[in-house]
Amino acid sequence: MAVSVQVVFLGTGDAFGSGGRLQTCVLLRAEDRNALIDCGATGLIAMRRRGVDPNTIDLVLVSHLHGDHMAGLPFLILDAQLISRRTTPLTIAGPAGTQSRLAHMMEVMFPGSSTVERRFPLDVVEMEPGRRQPFEGFAATPYLVNHPSGAPAHALRIEVGGKIIAYSGDTDWTDTLIVAARDADLFIVEAYTCDKPVKYHLDYRTLLTHLHELRPKRWIVTHMGVEMLGKVAALGCEYAEDGKRIDV
Hints:
Strands 6-5-4-3-2-1-13 form a 7-stranded mixed β-sheet. Strands 7-8-9-10-11-12 form a 6-stranded mixed β-sheet. It is 22% helix and 26% strand. The chain is globular. It has helices at residues 43-49, 67-70, 73-83, 98-109, 176-181, 204-214, 226-229, and strands spanning 6-11, 25-30, 33-37, 59-61, 90-94, 122-126, 133-135, 138-144, 154-160, 163-167, 186-190, 219-222, 245-247.
């Protein structure tokens, strides 16, 4: 049975803070379960700013292993250990290489932090492209996209509360987006630029040419660079902003 799913855009910016936006971090709320899509370096700041208790996050789905999409994880984990005194399990799910990249990142940022005994169960799951991965209250199917990050990059098709939330991650156009996003209740999609093609990123004009194949019930653009931010208000499309909340 479908339930209302609330989507909170905690961070909607690119890697460089264009427009003063925080880095990518999207909260999905359904009944008593909460998940993040990506957790960029500013993820914990965004949660504090919007009154989101980090201890209520059950699952973090990571699209790819760039810092503006996953560098908030060490702060989230250390906050849970040292400040919030978390006791409930936390699952982090991402592409192949997530576990080693996370451990390396924690050691670079806070030496010794990856091996301490934790007060809470932490499970790192590496998802296989095309394979549906169930979690409590959620399921996610990753699809390979075109965005080099030293590991596979994924678009995500997420099942929650009887709804489908699709997420492009960062990528230029690839037909796997059709499978990931077709007929989704909501498609959260990168539009890094408006007219100018940028390698490994999706521009708005290219997105428009493929909407008839994607057929989402609702779509909202995010991860916008300077050029797109200067034009988006005049385009007539729905676009994400830090703090924006929608119900699906």
